[in-house]
Write a structure and sequence with these properties.
The complex is a heterodimer of chains A (about 375) and B (about 350). Chain A is an alpha/beta fold and about 375 residues long. Helices cover about 35% and strands about 15% of the residues of chain A. The radius of gyration of chain A is 21 Å and the shape is globular. The longest helix of chain B has 18 residues, at about 110-130. Chain B has a seven-stranded mixed beta sheet with strand order 9-11-8-12-10-13-14. Chain B has a five-stranded mixed beta sheet with strand order 1-2-7-5-6, with helices on one face. Chain B has helices at about 25-40, 80-90, 110-130, 185-190, 210-220, 235-245, 260-270, 290-300; strands at about 50-55, 55-65, 70-75, 75, 95-105, 130-140, 150-160, 175-180, 225-230, 250-255, 285, 310-315, 320-325, 330-335. Chain B has about 350 residues and is of the alpha+beta class. Classes of the chains: A alpha/beta (about 375), B alpha+beta (about 350).
Chain lengths: ~375, ~350
Amino acid sequence: MRFVDEFRQPELITRTAEEIRRLADPARHYRFMEVCGGHTHAIYRFGLMDLLPPNIELVHGPGCPVCVLPMGRIDDGLSIAEDPNVIFAAFGDMMRVPGTHGSPLEYKARGMDVRIVYSPTDALKLARKNPDKHVMFFAIGFETTAPSTALTLMRAKAEGIPNFSVFSNHVTIIPAIRAILDSPDMRIDAFIGPGHVSTVIGCRPYGWIASDEGKPIAVSGFEPLDVLQSVVMLLRQLKDGTAIVENNYKRVVPWEGNKAALKAIAEVFEIRPYFEWRGLGFISQSALRLKDTYAQWDAEKRFSVPGVRVTDPKAAQCGEVLKGVLKPAQCKLFAKECTPEHPIGALMVSSEGSCAAYYSYAMRKSPELVHVT
Amino acid sequence: MTSAPPKIRFRDPQVDMAHGAGGKASRRLVEGLFAPILCGASTEPLGDAAHIDISGARIAITTDAFVVRPLSFPGGSIGELAVNGTVNDLAVSGARAVALVCSYVLEAGLPSDILEAEVRAMAAAAQRAGVVIAGGDTKVVEHGKADQMYITTAGIGSLIPGLSLSAASVRPGDKIILSGPIGDHGITILLARGELDLEADLRSDTRSVLPLVEELAAKAGSGVRWMRDPTRGGVATSLNELARDCACGMQISEELIPMHDAVRGACELLGLDPLHIANEGQFLSVVSPESAEAALKALHNTPGGEQAAIIGEVTEQPAGSVLVTTLYGGTRIVDMLVGDPLPRIC
């Protein structure tokens, strides 16, 4: 497969892993955060941990959109789905994420009209096909998916489609990284920067991480070679005592980002004053809502929702895991009450969530870790 | 003599789609509710077909229900699946299908030409598989109470001589053989539903695997220890079940698993693991190390088995788990399918 196999060549991988071992100072411990859930997934899926020396620790970041979504938002979205006139449409990623009274899939099993869509435009198609129903798209994602939601809304407006709305949970990555760096219990040496998000926002917005915080960052793709090469870049910077933003995903990420996508976001969305993130709490200017010019398609304006803040089960330590303070297996519920089949926190649902990734790909290789408290 | 009442461990409040997806939830339902109530104290591991004695003759018996949507898809249709599915369940239990019976549940309003096409597809598949359809039953339900048509088939088979299969006979060092490329059926169906706006040059792999199984039995006979057709839940689920049943580990190597590029590509794009995708015309076998070469050769020399491959072997550790070696020597555990495979977007 082109653009995939080139980045999975065993001999290149082996050579890069050797270079990592050469560069890593055995006297020091490294903590690198991979911001993106996609990286977490790739690291487990390809067994990359096995290729790194033990003093390089990869800390899983907040870049998994369903993982950072607080339960109250899911409840709000699902309360709209209870209207028999509404079709609730969302990405497959959302379907198993638990709300207070069940996940979207469980709502579907109870008879509510819940559909999996592959893109927001598919939700719009559903609206065209079902003129007597209202289709609500439960939008999630960082800047990666926001442009496609924006373009869909622009089309809905241009065509004047009345029976379609978006419940926006779009969030932005930079404030989340800032919150992590501001967190007192956080010790990160360098960042493996988001890949897909950067295809939209480019590399420039990360500048402050290097210049103000002195942390190296390498924007990275998702193939094994991408991730390992990024580790090489970070080790080199730390060795040289430099901190810059490096673009290690040039085949997709333009330094300036995707201007057309950014324009679409700016046309449809505005920044919310604040938004709640699971595990990280309220972060100011960290999420997107629809502008007033799109009020007619804004599910939050068209429907009344409970808007209740739902706290996570007390014993669950999703927040600490999300911030990278705890490893998944160090959470009290991990692999006990909380499993991929009966997830309590969203980190156990999405295959990009560090708990699910850890559970399915690594846990049973080192069962002793499960009992760490 | 009284026996203790069966213990019902199934505690899920309602039936969800996951209970039918062939993974963990399905297993919980079958082992926690159906088996203890219906099969009582029998401790036999649940296979694809049961072997029972009738007046001194030992036969295999199985049943399978088919609810696929859409009814027809590139490479096959529900009628063909209904025959091949049951023939294959018998085959991997070590039996040659002799006769099938079938039940139709039809939704009022189903166009007759669709029904006729499916009945003809069944007849053709039965002829290809060398099995007789000996009887059937029909029910019609109100419009909206079923999705066009469902077919249930049940079949009996005679045991293939020279085969003695059980998970308990599987030993560390045994080789794991896969009959051909995986994921074609599951990905074809996913794309045929037309919800994803993706196209690929793929066809369902539905077929009878009986010729391959018979050739394997003839050439590797007593060296064949276990077989299973990895339908719903895919190769990962079948191997996890075996790992659990024989208390060994299964170590397979990513680069050895045959797969079409279109399946790999679709799985990459949708965030699915091909090891969890359903197959309808492949089977896994575990063969003693001494018989492995003969077994592989037998499959290679049989039409439809050209791409068969040894994908790994049975190990002592990690007992009860399936470990996949990635292309770079890293490893990962592959669990049974949890719920339905859902496309991952963001």
